[in-house]
Amino acid sequence: MTGGAGGRASLPPGPYLVVDAAVCAAVGRRPADLAAAAVRSGVRTVQVRAKHVGVRELVDLTVAVTDAVRLAGPALVLVDDRVDVALAARARGAGVDGVHLGQSDLEAGDARALLGPGALIGVSAARPQDVRAVDPAVVDYIGTGPVRLTRTKPEAAVAAGFDGLGEAARTSVLPVVAIGGLGLDDVPAVRRAGARGLAVVSAICAAADPARAARMLVEAWQQQPSGMSGPSRAGVA
Ligand SMILES: Cc1ncc(COP(=O)(O)OP(=O)(O)O)c(N)n1
Ligand SMILES: Cc1nc(C(=O)O)sc1CCOP(=O)(O)O
Ligand SMILES: [Mg+2]
């Protein structure tokens, strides 16, 4: 899935699944099955996140999720943190689309050089100075969180809230994805804040019925008009 300027991938609007290996394991689900179910329900971006596995296992997991997503429907697959894992999965034939980089991961420019011009690259930024520091010539979107404190990432200890999310969206010339403690009821506020996407782990991975949870998020997003005007709203569906 491409379509951004100059052949760059562009971030699909709407719900964004971060398929977290630890959360999936806790509820006895395979990340690849879960990702495929979410894509069949209309989710168009999937990120593979596994903080407590070795690099070889992470490559295997990334290949499995990517292959399952490719069969399920049109969606982008990103890897959390690891450009080397994205490249290794690609070398095995998996169509990994890009990476999501944290503030202490590889610099976005280096990731772009390694992954190429067509890759989708997201970076985490919540504070206005971090948002402004992101280079829009290199990066495709910003992930802002935690909007709420969340047990999925307890080390993220300062909540941005919806005010912080809105400020990030107004500051950024890039699309912003909201993350952290979010679920179905938050779709209106996330859209009002001007975000292009709503990223969730628990709301899909730990739901009683993940396919239904994903479908409800997608439908709620489509029913809700987007909010505000500002630099990052260009192209928001
Ligand atoms: C869409 C999205 N936004 C933010 C994050 C957080 O990424 P990072 O800062 O790398 O933290 P970890 O997820 O690695 O703990 C994300 N993963 N996705
Ligand atoms: C992976 C991640 N990053 C965050 C950030 O704030 O950067 S919060 C988070 C976890 C999101 O999980 P849940 O939807 O279960 O709250
Ligand atoms: Mg990360």
From TrEMBL:
Binding positions (2-[(2R,5Z)-2-carboxy-4-methylthiazol-5(2H)-ylidene]ethyl phosphate): T150, R151, T152, G181, V201, S202
CC terms in the record's Gene Ontology section: cytoplasm
The keyword NAD is assigned to this record: no
InterPro entries listed in its UniProt record: Aldolase_TIM, ThiamineP_synth_sf, ThiamineP_synth_TenI, TMP_synthase
GO biological process terms, semicolon-separated: thiamine biosynthetic process; thiamine diphosphate biosynthetic process
Binding-site residues, 4-amino-2-methyl-5-(diphosphooxymethyl)pyrimidine: Q47, V48, R49, A50, K51, D80, S124, K153
Co-factor binding details: Binds 1 Mg(2+) ion per subunit.
Gene3D superfamilies: Aldolase class I (3.20.20.70)
Cofactors (names): Mg(2+)
Reactions mediated catalytically: 4-methyl-5-(2-phosphooxyethyl)-thiazole + 4-amino-2-methyl-5-(diphosphooxymethyl)pyrimidine + H(+) = thiamine phosphate + diphosphate; 2-[(2R,5Z)-2-carboxy-4-methylthiazol-5(2H)-ylidene]ethyl phosphate + 4-amino-2-methyl-5-(diphosphooxymethyl)pyrimidine + 2 H(+) = thiamine phosphate + CO2 + diphosphate; 2-(2-carboxy-4-methylthiazol-5-yl)ethyl phosphate + 4-amino-2-methyl-5-(diphosphooxymethyl)pyrimidine + 2 H(+) = thiamine phosphate + CO2 + diphosphate
Entry superkingdom: Bacteria
Presence of the UniProt keyword Coiled coil in the record: no
Pathway the protein contributes to: Cofactor biosynthesis; thiamine diphosphate biosynthesis; thiamine phosphate from 4-amino-2-methyl-5-diphosphomethylpyrimidine and 4-methyl-5-(2-phosphoethyl)-thiazole: step 1/1
Gene Ontology molecular function terms on file: magnesium ion binding; thiamine-phosphate diphosphorylase activity
EC annotation from Swiss-Prot or TrEMBL: 2.5.1.3
Keywords of this entry: Magnesium, Metal-binding, Thiamine biosynthesis, Transferase
Domain Thiamine phosphate synthase/TenI, first and last residues per copy: 16-204
Residues reported in the UniProt entry to bind Mg(2+): D81, D105
PANTHER family per record: THIAMINE-PHOSPHATE PYROPHOSPHORYLASE, THIAMINE-PHOSPHATE SYNTHASE
Protein family (similarity comment): Belongs to the thiamine-phosphate synthase family.
Function of the molecule: Condenses 4-methyl-5-(beta-hydroxyethyl)thiazole monophosphate (THZ-P) and 2-methyl-4-amino-5-hydroxymethyl pyrimidine pyrophosphate (HMP-PP) to form thiamine monophosphate (TMP).
Protein name: Thiamine-phosphate synthase
Organism, as annotated: Cellulomonas persica
Gene name tied to this protein: thiE
